[in-house]
Each structure stands twice: as C-alpha cells, then as structure tokens.
C-alpha cells in the first residue's frame, strides 16, 4: 500500500529528462503535498529539478540570445552596468520642518524620487525610518515560518485569494503558468482597510509582523507625500497593504527555472525587504539589471496603477527573481493599493494629462 511507499505522492520528483510527463497530473500531485518547493528539497538530495519547474525551450533560447547580445553590446550604458538609484531619506525622516536646510533637502529628495520613478521605476531607500533590528527580525521570522514542521503549515495552505492569510507554493493560478516557480509564499493581508486581527497571524512571527507593519505603514505614508509632490497632485493609495513573504530554497539547476517569473506589480507601489543573497532583476532599456542588496535598505518599485494614473510619467518596470545555488533567499514584498471595493476602471488623473 502507498502508506509504506516513501515516494507516494512525490512522483513529480523525477528529473526533467524523463520521457513520460503528464504536466497536469504532476502539478496536482505537487500541490496535494502541501509542502511546497521546500518539501521538494527536503525529500532528498536533488541533482535535477522536477520537470514542472523547467522553463519552456523558447524562453530558455530567448534568454541565451539576450545574454549573447548583452555580452557583445557596444553601448555598455544600456547594459547591466546600470545601478539602482539609492535615495537617502534622512532629511525627511528625521529633520524638523523648521530646521535649517529642511526645505532644500526635501526638494532634493522629491526630485530624486521623481527622476527614479520616471526612468527605471526602481530605487533603494536608506535612512527610511524602519529600524534595522526590526527588519532583521522580520527576515528571521519569515524564515522561521517556512522552516517549521510541515504539519504546522498545512492548515494554512490554500489558493483562495480572498482569505486574509494563506500559505502556498508559487502563486494562486500557477496551473495556468508555463512553469512552476521555485519559491513558497505566505500572503498576509494586514490592512484591508482595517488592521488584521493579530490572532490570525502565525505565532512564529506574529509580534515582529505587527511591529514591522507599523513602520512600513508610516514609510508608505511618507512615500505617498513625496510621490504626490513629484507629480504635483494628491494621491491616496495606502488604504490596503498586503505582505507577501517569500522563501526561495537553494536550487540545483538555477539556469533552468526562476524564483519568480517576469511580471509587473498591479498595485500603486511596493516596498521590498530582502536578505543579502540577491537575485532580483528588473528590465531597463531591454536589459535585465541586478538589484544589489544593500543591508538596511528597502527597495521601492512603482506599480501598474501608479503608472496609469500618472499618464505613464512613472514607470512600472517588469521584474523577476532568478533561482540560485545558494539559499534560502528571504524577502517580504509590501504592496500598497487603494480601496479594493472600488471597481470603476481607472485612467490618468486629468491634472497630469497634457
């Protein structure tokens, strides 16, 4: 009987070179384990990743061609030498409005954020007001959650996008994707618009989640003010806040899959906390730019909604996370959006339409 078979329910673990392959069946078997990608890794030493994680041949061929073009690119300014802008918020976070030099520094910060939002759509913040020890503990808390016993996580496993908190592998509709992503996720809808009931949060990192959320909300309000000034109008886009806490295990064949596939964020903007491993890339002038982690910094990227209402002055860049031989990589993406009950189609705000 299958109860005595250690491989029962893990048939999908076969390497990607197997001749027989039923993708739908393998996806279901994988999903039914409710142990995610970490469960795949924990099942035993892997030399090859299961086929459901392998990117299609045309994607891999396109990637190889992009690498060849980049390697031979004469105009190196368009290549991966582009550096993610780093913006120091110290003048906003700590100075009093009556202090000497406040107005000048405030204007400089607004201009820096405007420029980054209009060009790459990505920028890193330092001196942002979120204590480093809170950030470090948040990373540890996410790692603790994902590395606890499988039986403790399984009750939260779901693909229902309406739940306030769910744990799952890949994304809600991964069965429609061309390949499965090499990551596990925990989604916490902490502000929608009321703050989440603390008892709904995992005990493994409940306290630090609430502490981190408090600081991120404050930072979000500051960013809204600065972005509003940059556009010359008043924005209201922090009514809802979702945290997606991702866990990217080490991958034996990182060149064949991705931790997170190419996408843009559908919200107003995202604040990202990440560890020091790296792997995040964004598209800039048709080339992938590596985001080099800066300890103590937070990364901000413009979302689709802000691009739309700014009449495309601000750029929502596509981005992805590459898989890595080293891991796990830990990140917390905080997505700020407006009212989720407002269903009217949105377009550019009339004040920014020329």
From TrEMBL:
Q: Which family does it belong to?
A: Belongs to the iron/ascorbate-dependent oxidoreductase family.
**Metal-binding as a keyword?**
yes
Q: Which residues form the signal peptide?
A: none
For this protein, the record's Pfam families field holds: 2OG-FeII_Oxy, DIOX_N
Picking any one GO molecular function of the record gives:
metal ion binding
User: Does Transmembrane helix show up as a keyword for this record?
Assistant: no
Keyword terms: Iron, Metal-binding, Oxidoreductase
Give the protein's recorded name. Answer: Fe2OG dioxygenase domain-containing protein
- Domain Fe2OG dioxygenase: start-end pairs: 239-339
